[in-house]
Specification:
There is one protein chain. With 61 residues, this protein is mostly helical. It has one domain. The protein contains 3 helices and no strands. The longest helix is centred in the C-terminal third of the chain and has 20 residues.
């Protein structure tokens, strides 16, 4: 279980992004419907979570 140390947040972020993009890829929604839906919010949250974790991982100093 040492492999998961420091990577759990990245895994969750990737799963969030994949889940939101699946609606667009599978054809459940057009691009316009996708942009106007809550899936874009989930995608942005996933990107923000990954960026936040990367920022914490790089300690200044």
């Amino acid at each position: 279980m040492q492999w998961f140390q420091g990577r759990k947040t990245y895994i969750i972020s990737a799963l969030m992004a994949a889940t939101s993009l699946m609606h667009l890829i599978n054809g459940d929604a057009t691009l316009q419907e996708f942009i106007m839906s809550d899936q874009v919010t989930t995608l942005m949250e996933a990107l923000g979570l990954g960026t936040l974790r990367a920022g914490i991982a790089r300690r200044v100093g």
